[in-house]
Structures are given as C-alpha cells and as structure tokens.
Specification:
9 helices, 0% strand, globular, Globin/Proto
Amino acid sequence: MSLDFEKLTVYGKSFSGFTPDKEALLLEVGSQIKPYLAAVTDEFYQQLATIPETASFLEGRVEGLKKTHRLWMEGLFTGPYDKDFTAQMFKVGDVHVKVKLPVEFMAGAMTLINNRLFTLIVETFGDDKQYCARTIAAVNSVTGFSLLVMQQSYQASSLAEELEKFLKISGMSRTLFTNLALAYRDK
C-alpha cells in the first residue's frame, strides 16, 4: 500500500491538537518522565491482565510486549514526531490487525495509559498547575495522534483483509476488481 505519511502526519496532528509547542514541551519534560516509563508499562500490563478478554492476546508474550511498549512510550517523549513516527504508528495498527486484536482494545488501552501518565505528570509537575495542565494536554495530544494513526492503519488493513477474502471466495482477480472499482468510482 502506498501512503503519504507526511499528509497523514499533518492530518493526525490537526485532529489531536498536536502542535509544535506541545512537541517541544514533551521533549522538555522527557528526561524527567522517562525514568518512570518502565513502571508505567508494568502497571499497564498488570491492568490488562485483570481484563479477561485480553488474556489470549497476552499469553506468553508479556515480556516482549513490554519491551516494545516501553520503546514506544519513550518515543512519545523523544520525538521526532514526523512522517517516520507516523509510519511507525501505522505499522502498530497493522500489527494489531494481524493478531486480530479488537479495535476497541486500542482506544481502551490508550485510556489506561493516559490515566497513568496523567497521574505521573501531576505527581511530577503538580506544584506548577499551568505547566502541569500544559504537559497533560501535550501527552493527550501525542497519544491521541498515535491512536488516530493506528486506527487509520487498522481500518485500511481490515479492509484489505476483507478484500482478499472476497477475491478468494469470488474467484475474481484483483485486476478485474480494480477495473470495476475504477469504472464505478464517480457514479
């Protein structure tokens, strides 16, 4: 699939309010937040373990998932938040489709992550209410941006899987399907 990640980056940032000043703030607070991210990841997976529906997705994979999760979380505070970051988030969504992760798990997981990160930010910067509020807004924007891109990927990957199933069941070639789709695009 050919995708313009630069365009998706602009689109995602506009919906999440992920502005250059918020990017700069995340980079600024990163050194203070990063030492706690392993604990945030551990708590996140402890929470997931209490949800019966997540068990089959975690079984035998928690340590590897934690490593990937920690790296992603560090990326939230180190940037850059460019087309390569967007491509990486897109790939995360694609992987979630391949393992048949229900789409609602991504939004639910992001909520759990934000809950813990927001608490950490209050604990770290709570004496300065304005700075704390700005930092929470920045974290909310970067995680919202990440989720939006993952969901875009999830949708594209899900549609591609469904198309492959349809082509296999119907016996229709991809070329014929593409030609038909093009013929009826503007009708």
